[in-house]
Every structure is written in C-alpha cells, then in structure tokens.
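Here is one such protein, fold included:

. . .
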Amino acid sequence: MLQLSWAGLRDRWTSFAGAVLTVCLGVALVQSSLLLLLASATGDAPPGPGRWRRCDSRRPESSR
C-alpha cells in the first residue's frame, strides 16, 4: 500500500506542487486584503485643508 502511495506521488508531484503553490498564493492574497482593510478602517484621516491656510500660494487672490 505504501509503494502505491509513493508511486502516485512520483507520478503526480507537479499537481501536488501546484496545489501547494495555489494555496500559499491564496492565503497571501487574503492576508494582504485583510491587512489593507484593517489599515483603512482603523487609520486616522490625514489633516484636512487647515494646514493649507498658512500657505498663501495655494489660495486664490480673492480669498487672501
């Protein structure tokens, strides 16, 4: 029985390697998606237009 298992593995090693590679890439994709989702959900918003009020070159002439 063990010889039959080894023979099947030798014949189909590329299929097993492809399956392992596919699972690894799938896990990496899910992990990166969740990391991006968590980072965007819990991150603080960058400072708004208040920081540009000090910079006169970005304001139109009428509002100076």
